[in-house]
Prior knowledge:
- Keywords: ATP-binding, Nucleotide-binding, Transport.
- One of its GO terms (cellular component) is membrane.
- Pfam families: ABC_tran (PF00005).
- By secondary structure, the protein is of the alpha/beta class.
- The chain has helices at residues 35-41, 65-71, 86-96, 104-111, 128-140, 158-175, 186-192, 212-215, 220-227; strands spanning 2-9, 12-19, 24-28, 50-55, 58-59, 72-75, 146-150, 178-182, 195-200, 203-209.
- It has one domain: Rossmann fold (3-Layer(aba) Sandwich).
- The protein has a 6-stranded mixed beta sheet with strand order 6-7-8-3-9-10, sandwiched between helices. It has a 4-stranded antiparallel beta sheet with strand order 2-1-4-5, covered by helices on one side.
- Strand 4 (50-55) and strand 5 form a beta hairpin.
- Helix 3 (86-96) packs parallel to helix 5 (128-140).
- The radius of gyration is 18 Å and the shape is globular.
- The structure holds adenosine-5'-triphosphate.
Amino acid sequence: MIEFKNVSYGPLKNISLSVDKQEIAILFGPSGSGKSTLLYLFNRLIDPEQGEIFYKGKPIDDFSITGLRQNVGLLLQSPNLFPGSVLDNLKYGPSLTGSWKEGDEKRLLEYVQLPQDLRDRDVDHLSGGQQQRVSLARTLANEPEVLLLDEPTSALDNNTAEEIEIVLKELIEEKGLTMVMVTHQLDQVRRMGTKGMFMNEGTIQETGGLPGMLDNPETLELKEYLEG
Ligand SMILES: Nc1ncnc2c1ncn2[C@@H]1O[C@H](COP(=O)(O)OP(=O)(O)OP(=O)(O)O)[C@@H](O)[C@H]1O
């Protein structure tokens, strides 16, 4: 689905990786190792200084930025909703492309397991967990094939974080989504991931199936990181 070939950018050195359809690929590793920078290359928030990125077999810059970002949605750590109601936020993106249909919000609220009566609520009057669900629903409103998640639950308490994880996993099954997620919470790497990419000093130090690579790390760096 997505392939990087010898990509370098800023702190990132010679990154090669692949993410298959319906995989949950997790980028984890120490602070400053380049996880977020790597994530932002997936939907062209930044472009490589060297190397190439392919999306569905084509060079990523063959796609228009708008088209690419509809297909490859991004969810950040903080909800970044704009002032207005839940409905205003959900319909904004699809309205720009004329694809919004009245009633679409019902399905979106269901996907993220929010009650329908929140539809007209001002987003400022929602809890942090509810706001993050609205953000996710807004990203899903564009019908993406890939979701990029930058520490999507780190601002939430443990119970809410696990509820959002369940919503995300169900979306993979229901909609066949592919996900690339940055997190530094090892319990979340274990619960969520199918493929792990351990980052260290701007490189992918080790890649492997999850949870296997956490139980049998191959490199000293990953061993030391896991021992904390
Ligand atoms: N274009 C650039 N040129 C040089 N350095 C950069 C550039 N872009 C980012 N950096 C630096 O690279 C480092 C890696 O940043 P990044 O945010 O990707 O790490 P991270 O692993 O996501 O960290 P954290 O877990 O703390 O969020 C940071 O020190 C950042 O300031």
